[in-house]
Write a structure and sequence with these properties.
It contains five helices and nine strands; from the N terminus they run βββααβαβαββββα. It has a seven-stranded mixed beta sheet with strand order 2-1-5-4-3-8-9. A hairpin with a 5-residue loop joins strand 8 and strand 9. Helices cover 27% and strands 30% of the residues. The longest helix is centred in the first third of the chain and has 12 residues. The protein has one domain: Glutaredoxin (3-Layer(aba) Sandwich), CATH 3.40.30. It is α+β, with helices and mostly antiparallel strands.
């Protein structure tokens, strides 16, 4: 199923970098920036995470909570957070269930090889659990501006 604005955000649950259970329902009554990225500590993913980190006060002032999601495990997320002083949680989606629910686990291609991976996308979810915005052409170094638009 392809998601679009106005759809109910698919429910999810998983563990963050500290092993804490996180669910979509934890954000009921709050606005959530749910962003999917391919891999911890790679150039584009680092630029995106650091842009969100550097602008967390503006995002918070606008009422947003930020949650990053990739297929990396908790230990990888901890290293990524510590290395770049990230100030929001990262969900370890090692079985790709959350990525699949949001339609971002797709076939990709690099150097002629096809493989499955996470496509960089951001879903802005409103207080009622509805998708308010989908950003599929993410500018990693200016992502906050796309969200706050």
């Amino acid at each position: 199923m392809v998601l679009s604005t106005g759809n109910k955000a698919p429910d999810f649950q998983g563990k963050d970098q500290n092993g804490n259970e996180i669910r979509l329902s934890d954000f009921k009554g709050k606005k959530l920036v749910l962003y999917f990225y391919p891999k911890d500590d790679t150039p584009g993913c680092t630029a995106q995470a650091c842009n969100l980190r550097d602008n967390i006060s503006a995002l918070s002032a606008a009422g947003y909570h930020v949650l990053g999601v990739s297929g990396d495990d908790e230990k990888s997320h901890q290293k990524f957070i510590n290395k770049y002083s990230l100030n929001f949680p990262l969900l370890a989606d090692t079985d790709h269930k959350v990525a699949e629910a949001y339609g971002v686990w797709q076939e990709k291609s690099m150097y002629g090889k096809k493989y499955m991976g996470v496509v960089r996308n951001t879903f802005v979810i409103d207080e009622n659990g509805m998708i308010a915005q989908i950003i599929d052409k993410v500018k990693t170094d200016d992502h906050t501006a796309q969200i706050l638009g």
